[in-house]
Structures are given as C-alpha cells and as structure tokens.
Amino acid sequence: MIAMPSYIPPPIALPKALSTVSALSTVIDETDSFFERQQRTEKLLDEYVATSKKDDTVKILRSFLIYLPHGGLFQLMSDIELSASLGALQELRDYLVGTLLVPRKYF
Q1: How do residues 14-42 score in pLDDT, each as one tens digit?
Q2: Alpha-helix residue ranges (DSSP H) falling in the chain
Q3: Residue 88 belongs to a domain
Q4: 11 inside domain
Q5: d(CA 34, CA 22)
Q6: Contact present, 23 and 83 (Cβ < 8 Å)
Q7: In terms of residue numbers, what domain contains 58?
Q8: Which residue among 14, 37, 44, 107 is least crowded, i.e. fewest CB within 10 A of its CB?
Q9: Is the pTM of this model over 0.90?
Q10: Do the domain assignments include residue 102?
C-alpha cells in the first residue's frame, strides 16, 4: 500500500492575467496552421527576457512543448501567445508548475 503524504498543497489558481481573458477556453482559429503557431511560439520564447538568473520560464515552457501530447500542444501554444501579449509568461510557467508538476511529487 502506498502511503499518502501528510500534506498536499492546494491547487494554484489560474494566473490573473489569463483568468480575465478566459485564455484556456479560447476558440482556436481553424485557419491557423500548427506550423505557423509553432513558429510564433518559438519566436516569443526566444524574445522573452529573463527577470533574474534563476528565471527558468523559457526552459519550463519549452519542456512542456516537447513532452505534452499533441492534443494539448496547440492549446498550450495559444496560451503562450496570449500570456506573452499580456506580459504574463512567468505567471503561465508558475501555473503549469504549480498545477501539473508539483502535485506529481505527491502521487
């Protein structure tokens, strides 16, 4: 039997910048090709300016882009585009880490 940890952190709320625009439920433009979106996403990540030496935002987001199944990849690229336009890439990174990566440590 697997022992459950005594403390499981609460889920992190959707970043404020994204929740006000309903970013995760946006409709994807059907005319937008996967390749075009991928190019724009890579350009945005290349242009991101780290806020400190410890800022791993681009590394984390690129890791998600590499390992995320194709079904969620297009949506993540949309979220990256929206977050970049709102200046909230680091918030998106924090949200993904807090809701997907950290809970995995407890199960």
Answers
A1: 566 555 444 444 444 545 688 899 999 99
A2: 16-19, 34-47, 57-67, 70-85, 89-96, 102-104
A3: yes
A4: no
A5: 21
A6: yes
A7: 54-107
A8: 107
A9: no
A10: yes
